Structures are given as structure tokens and as C-alpha cells.
Amino acid sequence: MNSRELIELDSRHVWHPFSRAASDVEPVLVASARGASLTTADGRELLDGISSWWVNLFGHGHPKIVRAIAEQAGRLEQVIFAGMTHEPAIRLAAELADLLPGDLNRVFYSDDGSTAVEVAIKLAWQYWQIAGQPRRGRLLAFDGGYHGDTLGAMSAGASSGFFQAWSEQLLDVEVAPWPHTWESDDDVDGKEAAALRVIDALLDERGSEIAAAIVEPLVQGASGMRMTRPGFLRAVVDGLRDRGILVIFDEVMTGFGRTGRNFACEQIGVAPDLICLSKGLTGGFLPLGATVVSDQVFAAFRDSAPHDLFCHGHSYTANPVACAAALAALELLRLPETVAAWARIFAAHGRGLQELNGPSAGIQRARILGTIAAFDMPVADPGYHSAIGRRLSKWLRESAKAPGIFLRPLGNVVYLMPPYCMTDAQLDHAWSEISRAIQAVAPRPTPV
Ligand SMILES: *Cc1c(COP(=O)(O)O)cnc(C)c1O
Hints:
The protein is of the alpha/beta class and about 450 residues long. The protein has 14 helices and 16 strands. It has helices at about 5-15, 50-55, 65-75, 85-100, 115-130, 150-155, 190-205, 230-240, 265-270, 295-300, 320-335, 335-355, 390-400, 425-440, and strands at about 30-35, 35-40, 45-50, 105-110, 140, 175, 210-215, 220, 225, 245-250, 275, 290-295, 365-370, 370-375, 405, 415. The strands form four sheets. A seven-stranded mixed β-sheet has the order 4-12-11-10-7-5-6, sandwiched between helices. A four-stranded mixed β-sheet has the order 1-2-3-15. It is globular and about 65 Å long. The N and C termini lie far apart (about 55 Å). Bound molecules: pyridoxal-5'-phosphate (PLP). Pyridoxal-5'-phosphate binds near residues 147, 216, 253 and 278.
């Protein structure tokens, strides 16, 4: 079948996520990928500027992960994980416990980011039931938070704006303000102080009914790379701990180096009670989720009555092939080259944004955290449905000097989140083409 025929068949039978067939440009047919580059079926190269939806850390086709997967698939591809166990899952759990701060020592496996979040929420609720405090049944989330697309995760992330279709069905959660900030934001101290006052009042009123708070530490991804400062989150966690509320960090996106440290919680200086991991966990090769909980949370379940067991488990829990991929990925994570890459990418983002920020560009709210850089395009219709992002990404794909760039802006929020193997030359190329794309799709009026 040739490319045309495949795309035609796709348009007849495939339903793509977060896509509207009637208005989206047709998907790109990708044939292969290596490192930071995707190769399309018609032989063009596209730089993967967003790590294939934030999952790919060390580049596509990394031979170490490929080999680990092949070897594990040949030895043990899958086995039930209740009443059975296996070496890749055991070693991975021990590695995660070693890598994570505090006493986050107990790993519950699931399938993806959403299920890692569902597990955390269900564990938090049941924890308080076992503790004899069933009134602690509410959740606290942050304005603009996103935690996945399953029901509990959607409820926690309702304020991200993606789930209006189901607003009647979702759980009612408490929503705290999120004072997001950017470079040269003069107002950040005031915004944080105001947010902390609101949160304090909310906790004084409802704190004893709240089971857990769930937060994307340092950066809210899907709602537009909305960043906060570590000190704000430290103060929030202090307030939560004062009221005995469990702290869930959703590090599905931020985990494994994205923010310039292994985990964002290290930058904040806080070990949460539960942490949700997925996306980069396998280096972006296979779906796998992990909810890691503190010794204290686990102890409540270990010593509980038989009917208090945690009734949760997926068919592919702790799939051996996915665990083997994750073990190989963690080996790569521990290399000094990886840490050096974070600093290198951070510096390249700085260069790129500085040029964009020049007098002619007219971008807003430039911000960088580790390997993530973002800015807003000033438009009359900001938000996820803003058309400017689609126009920009189409230009970068089709009109950029080779290699083209694959980005998927969140409406008018444009961001780069490259795999750690993206070279300086590739990064500088991406930034200069982004600059040209802005001039092409949103030209500034020439001053008279
Ligand atoms: C992507 C994401 C999720 C959901 O993960 P899936 O693997 O898509 O289910 C949850 N939380 C955060 C912070 C995410 O970025």
C-alpha cells in the first residue's frame, strides 16, 4: 500500500486522540525514527520537538532499550502479577525506590499516566477509610491541573478545560489557585501570596474533609506549560501537612529529568506521600505506569483487615517487557551525559528565547524549566482551541528549512520539549525556524 492509500484508509477507519477529523490537517505518516528525528513515509525528516507527546527521553530507537525489549520478549513476555512476580518488576521497583526521595519505597504498577493517577486517588480514599476517617473523602486539585483522561483523573483535572462534555458526571473537587509565572514577571510575589491566602482559608474551612491534594509539581503541562516556583509549592505542602492531608505529586510529565532534576519534587525539597510516574518511565518505548507510595501509606494497607485489600489491578500490570525497557531507560538516566544534556538543552532554550524575545517578535510570557521551554502567542482567542498553534505547526512541518520541525502547540502556547539526545545544532535550527514561522503566520505590523 502506498502512502496515499494508507492515509486514505486512516481517514476512513482511525479515530485519533484529541483530534477533530473535520478540521484538523491530515496526520503525518511516519515510517521510522532515530534519535531526535522522525522519518515520514515520503522520506522527509522531522525533528521531534515534543518527544512524541512527552514520552521519549533518550531518542527514538535507542539500541540499549531496543535490546532490552527484544531479550525480555524472548524470555518472558507477560505473566499474571497476582500470585506471581518476576525479576524485571522487582528490580525496577527497587531502582525507583532508590531514585526517589524520602520513604517512597512501595511501587504499584499500572498501564499509563491516567491509571497511575487513578491508583493514587483510590489509595488515598481507602487509606482514610482504613484509618477510620471516612469523612475525608474530598480531593483538592489546582486550577489548570491535568491528570489524564479516565474518570477520577478527569475530575481532578476538570479545571484544565478539556472535559466540559462530562462536567455533569465528574466528581466535585476543591480547586486551589495556581499562580503561574514566567520570566520577568513582576507580579509573582503578589500572586503567590494571594494564592496562599486563598488556599489557607480553603484548608481552614474544609481541610478535615480532604483526603489528598494532587498537584503537577512546578509545571502544569497540558493546560499550557504553566510554571510555578518551588517556594510556593513548599508553602502549599506545609499547609497540607499541617492538616494531615496526603500529598500526591503527579510527575507523569515532570519525572525523569524533564525539569532538570530526576524529579521535580527534588527541586521543591519535598517528598510527597504518593507519586505518579509514567510517560518517560520506559524511555518512551512502551506504556507503563507506577504509583509509588510512602512506607506510612503502605503500612496502613499491610496491617489492615482482609476486606481492606486494595481491589485494583490491570491485566498487564507490571508487564515484563515494559519493565525491562524501564530498567534500560533508568540506566541511561543515571549516565553523566544525561545530566549534562539537561543543562545543554536549558542553555539552548535560553539562546532561542532570547532571540525570539527581540523587539520584532511580540511573544509573551517566555519561560524555561529544565528541558521545557514555552511562550504564548498574543492572540484575540487564547486557549487550547486557538487556531494560531495549528497554523504555526503546519508551517514548521511543511515550510521550514530541512529538517522540518514537529510541534503540537497547546492553542496559543508554543513549547519545545525535546528528547535529551537533540543536538545543539538541531535545537538552534528548531528555534530559528520557530522564529521564521512566527513571522510567517503572525507577522508583526511594521512600525510607521
Ligand atoms: C500525560 C499526563 C497524564 C496522563 O497520562 P496518560 O499516559 O496519557 O494516561 C497524567 N498526568 C500528567 C501530568 C500528564 O502530563
